[in-house]
Every structure is written in structure tokens, then in C-alpha cells.
Design goal:
The protein is an alpha+beta fold and 748 residues long. Among the domains are: 103 residues, PAS domain (Beta-Lactamase, 2-Layer Sandwich), CATH 3.30.450; 87 residues, Up-down Bundle (Methane Monooxygenase Hydroxylase, Chain G, domain 1), CATH 1.20.58; 113 residues, Histidine kinase-like ATPase, C-terminal domain (Heat Shock Protein 90, 2-Layer Sandwich). 70% of the residues lie in helices and 11% in strands. It contains 28 helices and ten strands. The strands form two sheets. Strands 2-1-5-4-3 form a five-stranded antiparallel beta sheet. Strand 7 and strand 8 form a beta hairpin. Helix 7 runs parallel beside helix 9 and helix 22 packs across helix 28.
């Protein structure tokens, strides 16, 4: 058969191939191209795929986020607290599993605030554990401990086995002692295994069982349950744990197969956080195999995922701010609507003339287009492809520019900069934030970066920083270092991270790193340390005062009291004599009565210094006796309702609690000018709740504290802080005073 070549067609195909330029790499799907593209030469392609195909604001996630947003708004209108908090927690869970922690915590904190306002401590503790686990996944362990420890105390006081198991699991994740952590994990698993017998098909029960199995190093069993309930996030998490263990056992092929399955699931479910972790695990596995090139490629892809997470988080937060801005803008636009209508009326005539001109111009353009189309038919396909490619390039450039702008804003907000040092060209490239951190000119830093950075470094840190910046680049692991710089004649603290990249011959070719100004965070830590030291000093001071009070009370009772009693007895013996003149009888009678008064005064002073009832009768009876005493000796009518709180506070805590009540009653007697006062003490969900009310003249609480006039108030506040409690005072002139104190019971 004879083949006839059409030269015109061949020419057209040649033009099209030249216009399309470089070839595009595609696998079975665009997401599979992430591993095929070279991350060091096709960064833009990988960024485009990650941003377009893995966005949380797409697919099922977008549907659920919008659905929960509608439920939140509807619940606010109907004032349905349960529906609103449920939607807030579910929204937070979506962003948590997507590793967008800043957005997730916003939803969790809103739910926590509503539970606290509605006085639901159990549900508050449940949300606090979610917040703690979020901080744990963000490597902010101190913050995680703070929330989880508080929630643990609350949940352990309940009778709900599921909550107790959940509390043990959570506390185990932040427990530093390995043996104690294992005991908590085992207890959680034992309880959950009993629960699952009664709820074999319950999703939450199975989900928790899989978590507790994984915590007890039973990842294979945990994975089977996660697959049973089809929880993609847990499946990937457990698979990666198993794959990581395989890699360090030297079973590299099995580990890589597991990680590839995780990649497929993470992409399909848009689990960007776990996708990043999987790429990091693959990088570690190939590094263990000695394949440095693949290790570096996967490490670089993981960096693009992290970049995308920051960018998307910033984009979502920016969108939320834009919604608020648009709402305000519409309100302003409504005010200007009348003025705009007047302006529009005046411009109608001008617009009409312009429309005529546009119609004529459009008609001429149409004639020209027809003429051009007819005369240029042969190159129509080529022009179309050129226009299409130009449009795609403009879109890509716009997306890249927007991503870079978002990254710059994010870095500026966090005082974070990234840099790269090319050893071959000895050039340092950096983001816009780096000159701002050092307080230098961008051109000066680029032209002589060694001298500028070293001069800005604090003299005491220059030697160690010089070694860190210039030596020991053979270590591929990321290295952290904190040092000081001098900026605007002030000391600033910097945290630096770096990682070296070697070529095929093992020679360092580039060094990547980041810088972050951590001055404010360090100041915050120093303030916390000072506050803790001050509280410790106050606690020791009050303890010393109580010991001295106890000693003086004992001296008054055992020494002075006995001496006065002896005088009284002798006076009474003298009065029993037969030959006593009237003058002597009068004097002895006066001595007897005076010693009785003095003895009562000594007993009252001794009681105020250290109530003997506290050790003999307990805290409840001692407080009751105090209230009865002041009610019978003052014009104020004291009433009260006191639960039995004996044994709920340890020795030092008990005396501090008594002093709080004693000082409060003393303040009412001395300053309130009230007729009635009420003292209520109740046990409530792991706490002792105290409420003290009077109908007196009231006072300005803030003014008393600031002017240092309220010594008694400061005493109460210090003791409440020592007991890890909370104090709230509501007082108004002529409106009486309400004091609420909440003290946690001692854990025995």
C-alpha cells in the first residue's frame, strides 16, 4: 500500500510540537506524578499538583466543612448548645486530621468556652484532651501536659468507664516515666476490651480500642480494627508505625510497600499531614538503604507538603478575615447606596454613548476577526495552542506569586526566615524576613553575609555560632542551635536550624536552614518561672507563719494559760478562808474575775492563731464552730450550709482553706457594715465550691488590690493560688459582695 505524505499536515504538526515545548510528565493520575517529577527541577509542577489536588477545601472535606458551618449558624439561632458544640468539635477534627492545627484549635477552644460557661466539666475535659493531643502532635509537649493533666483529674472522678479509659490513654502519651506510661496504656486497653464486648459494632468503641492497642505496641491488631471501621487516618497512622519498624529491622522492601499503600490512601483522603509524614518515612528508609538521592527527593517533596500546609492554613484564615471584612463593607455600602444612585443617574447618558461606541467597536472587531480567521486558517491550530499555553503560564505564575506572597506573610507573622548556602558559588540566598530579623540591609547581607552575621552575633556567642555555621556539615540530620544577636542596641534570641545536602560523591554542595526570632517566647517562659518562684516563696512563707502560729498558740495555752489558771485558783482558795476582812475579799474577788476575763482572751487568741478543733474535730466542725461563734458575738446574722469536707484536703491544704474562710469572715465583720451574711461550702465534681455573700456596702476590688490596701484580700488570693484554685469577687457600692472560690480536692 502506498503512503502519501501531506507536507502541509507535517508542517503543522512540526509547528505544534515546537510550540508545546518541554514534555509534561504524567502518571496514572496527576497525584501519582508527585513521585515521578524531580523535586529539584520540577518544583512548580509539584506545588501545583499539591495545592490543586490535595486541598482540604475540596471533595468530601469541603462538603463536611460547609455542612458543619451551616449547623453552627443554625444552632446559634435556635440556641441549641449540644448541636453547636458537636459541629464545632467535628470541624476541629477535620482540620486536626489535615494537620491544620491553628484552625483546629480555634474550633476546639470555642467548644471548650461554651462547655465552661454552661458548667459542664466532663465535656470540657473531653475537649481539653483533644486540645492536648493537638499540641502533642505539634511537638508542644508542655502545653499538651497542661491540658491533659487538668482533664485527667476531672475524668478520673467520674463513674464512666469509657471516659476513665480515655483519660488513662491521654495521660500516658505525656507521661515522661516509661513504666507509668505503660501502666496507663495497659489500664486503658483492659477497660476498653470489656467495653467492646457490650458494643462490638460501635464505631467510637472500635476506634478507641484501635488507639489503645497501638499505644500498647500492638500496631498489627490496631490496623485490622482501623480497616474494619474504614478510618483512613488511623489506617495510615498505624501502617506508617509498622513500616517504620520494618525499616529499622532492615526489611526495606516490606517497609517501602507499606509506605506506598499509605501514600495512596493519604492522597485519596487528602490527609496532607500524614502524607508529609509518609514521605519523611520513605526518605529515612532510603537513607538507611544508602540511596541518598531518593532520600533527598522524598525529603524535598515532604518540604513542599509542609509549605502547602502553611499556605493553605494562611489562605483559610485570610478567607475568614475576608468574610468579616466583606460583611462590614456591605454595611458601609448600604449607607452610600443613595449617593451612588444619584451618581449612576448622572452617568447613564455618558454610558449610553459609550455603549454605542462599544457596539460599533465590537462590530469592527468582529469583521476584523472574520477577516483574520479566513486569511489565517492554516495557522489557526498553532495560534490556539499558543494562546492556551500562554494562559496556562499566566495562571501558574499567578498561583506561584500568590503562594510566595502567602509564605512571606506567614514568615513575617512568625518572625521566621529560610536561607540556602550554595557551596559551589559561595552564595547565600534568603527570604525577605532574614534581613528584618538581623536589622540589616538586604544588599549588605547578600554581598558579605559572613561578616554581617558574625558582627550581629552577641560577642559571647560568636565562637560557638561560628563553629555551628561553618563546621561539621557531614551530618545530614537537622541541627538546632539558639544564640543571641544585637539588634537596635537590644539583645534578641534566635533559634537556628540547618541541614546539609551532599552530591553523589558525598561532598557537601548546599546547606539549607531557617532562623526564627524567639525573644518574646523566651521572655514569656522567664515570666512563668518568676511567677512559679514567687508562688513557691509565698507558700513557704505562709507555711512558716502557720508553724509559728502553732508554736505561739501552744505557748499561750501550756504556759501563760496555766499560770493565769493557777492565779485564779489561788484567789478562789483565798476567798474560802474564814478570817478575811472585807477589803481582802473585795480584792480577791476582783482578781478572780480579772483572771477569768484574761483566760478567755488567751483562749480566743490561741484559737485564732491555731484552732485546736482542726486536729481533734476536723475541718468541717471547725468552720461550723467559727461561724456559730461570730454569729453569737456580732450584730451580723451569719447563716451557712456546709458539706462534710473532712479528708478532702491534706494537712497544709486544710489549714490554708480554713484561713481563707476565717479571713473572709473577718473582712465581713470589719468592713462590710452588713446585717446578713451567708457561707455555703459544697463538694462538686472533684472540687470544693465556696460561696460567701453579704448585703453590706461593697468595695472596689481592683482598687484595693492595686493600692496595696487589701492585705486581707492579698492573703486570700495567695492562699487560693497555693491551692491551685480560682477566685471571683463581685462587689458593687451599696450592692453587697459575692465571693466564689473553687478549690480542687487533693488526689490521694
Amino acid at each position: 500500500m502506498k503512503i502519501i505524505f501531506n507536507t502541509k499536515i507535517i508542517y503543522l504538526l512540526l509547528v505544534i510540537s515546537l510550540i508545546t515545548g518541554t514534555e509534561k510528565l504524567y502518571a496514572q493520575s496527576p497525584l501519582d506524578s508527585i513521585e515521578i517529577y524531580n523535586p529539584f527541577t520540577h518544583a512548580a509542577d509539584i506545588r501545583r499538583i499539591v495545592n490543586n489536588r490535595l486541598s482540604i477545601l475540596s471533595g468530601e472535606n469541603k462538603f463536611l466543612i460547609n455542612k458543619y458551618a451551616e449547623q453552627i449558624e443554625q444552632a446559634k439561632k435556635t440556641k441549641s448548645l449540644d448541636e453547636e458544640t458537636t459541629a464545632l468539635i467535628k470541624s476541629g477534627d477535620i482540620f486536626f486530621k489535615s494537620a491544620l492545627y491553628n484552625i483546629a484549635i480555634n474550633y476546639y477552644l470555642q467548644a471548650l468556652e461554651k462547655f465552661e460557661i454552661s458548667n459542664q466539666p466532663t465535656k470540657s475535659a473531653f475537649v481539653e484532651i483533644k486540645i492536648g493531643r493537638m499540641y502533642y502532635f505539634s511537638d508542644l509537649v508542655p502545653m499538651a501536659k497542661e491540658y491533659i493533666n487538668r482533664a485527667y483529674r476531672t475524668l478520673m472522678s467520674t463513674n464512666d468507664d469509657e471516659l476513665i479509659a480515655y483519660a488513662n490513654f491521654a495521660i500516658g502519651t505525656v507521661e515522661e516515666n516509661t513504666k507509668r506510661a505503660e501502666l496507663h496504656f495497659k489500664k486503658a486497653l483492659d477497660i476498653q476490651r470489656q467495653i467492646i464486648k457490650t458494643k462490638p459494632d460501635d464505631f467510637t468503641a472500635n476506634e478507641n480500642l484501635s488507639k489503645y492497642l497501638n499505644a500498647n505496641d500492638k500496631s498489627e491488631q490496631a490496623l485490622k480494627i482501623a480497616e474494619k471501621i474504614d478510618d483512613k487516618w488511623l489506617i495510615v497512622l498505624y501502617q506508617n508505625n509498622i513500616g517504620y519498624a520494618k525499616a529499622f529491622e532492615g526489611k526495606y522492601t516490606e517497609a517501602i510497600d507499606i509506605f506506598n499503600r499509605s501514600l495512596k490512601i493519604s492522597k485519596a483522603a487528602k490527609l496532607k499531614g500524614l502524607l508529609k509524614n509518609t514521605y519523611v518515612d520513605l526518605s529515612v528508609t532510603y537513607r538507611l538503604m544508602g540511596d541518598w538521592e531518593k532520600s533527598a527527593r522524598y525529603k524535598e517533596i515532604a518540604a513542599y507538603i509542609v509549605e502547602s500546609l502553611y499556605a493553605e492554613e494562611f489562605t483559610i484564615q485570610t478567607s475568614e478575615m475576608k468574610v468579616k471584612y466583606d460583611t462590614k463593607k456591605k454595611e458601609l455600602e448600604n449607607e452610600l447606596l443613595k449617593k451612588e444612585r444619584l451618581i449612576m443617574t448622572e452617568s447613564i447618558n455618558a454610558k449610553t454613548k459609550i455603549n454605542y461606541l462599544l457596539i460599533v467597536s465590537t462590530f469592527c472587531a468582529l469583521l476584523f476577526t472574520i477577516y483574520f480567521f479566513v486569511s489565517r486558517r492554516k495557522v489557526k491550530a498553532a495560534n490556539y495552542l499558543l494562546d492556551k499555553q500562554k494562559e496556562d503560564l499566566e495562571i501558574l505564575n499567578s498561583e506561584l506569586k500568590r503562594s510566595e506572597e502567602n509564605l512571606n506573610v506567614a514568615q513575617s507573622t512568625a518572625s521566621l526566615a529560610n536561607w540556602e548556602w550554595n557551596f559551589n558559588s559561595d552564595e547565600l540566598t534568603f527570604s525577605k524576613e532574614m534581613p528584618k530579623i538581623y536589622g540589616v540591609d538586604e544588599g549588605e547581607l547578600k554581598s558579605n553575609f559572613r561578616k554581617v552575621i558574625l558582627e550581629k552575633t552577641h560577642p559571647d556567642d560568636r565562637e560557638q555560632f561560628s563553629k555551628y555555621f561553618n563546621e561539621n556539615f557531614n551530618n545530614m540530620q537537622s541541627e538546632d542551635r539558639e544564640y543571641r544577636i544585637i539588634k537596635d542596641n537590644k539583645i534578641r534570641w534566635i533559634r537556628a536550624k540547618r541541614m546539609a545536602i551532599t552530591d553523589d560523591e558525598g561532598i557537601v554542595s548546599r546547606v539549607f536552614g531557617t532562623l526564627q526570632d524567639i525573644t518574646e517566647s523566651r521572655k514569656s517562659e522567664e515570666i512563668k518561672i518568676q511567677m512559679a518562684s514567687q508562688q513557691s516563696f509565698t507558700k513557704q512563707l505562709l507555711k512558716s507563719q502557720e508553724e509559728e502560729r502553732k508554736r505561739i498558740a501552744g505557748e499561750l495555752h501550756d504556759s501563760l494559760g496555766q499560770d493565769i489558771l493557777l492565779i485564779k485558783n489561788r484567789a478562789q482558795l483565798g476567798l474560802q478562808g474564814k478570817k478575811i476582812d472585807p477589803f481582802t475579799i473585795e480584792q480577791l474577788t476582783g482578781i478572780n474575775e480579772s483572771t477569768s476575763d484574761i483566760l478567755n482572751m488567751v483562749r480566743e487568741i490561741s484559737f485564732d492563731l491555731r484552732p485546736a478543733h482542726l486536729e481533734r474535730l476536723g475541718l468541717t466542725e471547725t468552720i461550723t464552730a467559727l461561724i456559730n461563734k461570730v454569729s453569737g458575738t456580732t450584730a451580723i446574722n451569719f447563716t451557712g450550709n456546709i458539706d462534710n469536707i473532712d479528708g478532702q484536703l491534706l494537712d497544709d491544704s486544710g489549714i490554708n482553706f480554713f484561713r481563707i474562710i476565717q479571713e473572709s469572715i473577718s473582712n465581713i465583720i470589719k468592713h462590710s457594715e452588713s446585717k446578713n451574711a451567708e457561707i455555703n461550702i459544697q463538694k462538686k465534681e472533684g472540687h470544693i465550691l465556696v460561696e460567701i455573700n453579704d448585703d453590706g456596702k461593697g468595695f472596689n476590688y481592683q482598687s484595693e488590690i492595686e493600692n496595696s490596701n487589701g492585705f486581707g484580700l492579698n492573703n486570700i488570693l495567695n492562699r487560693v493560688n497555693i491551692l491551685n484554685g480560682k477566685l471571683k469577687i463581685d462587689s458593687r457600692s451599696s450592692g453587697g459582695t459575692n465571693v466564689i472560690i473553687k478549690i480542687p480536692m487533693d488526689i490521694k
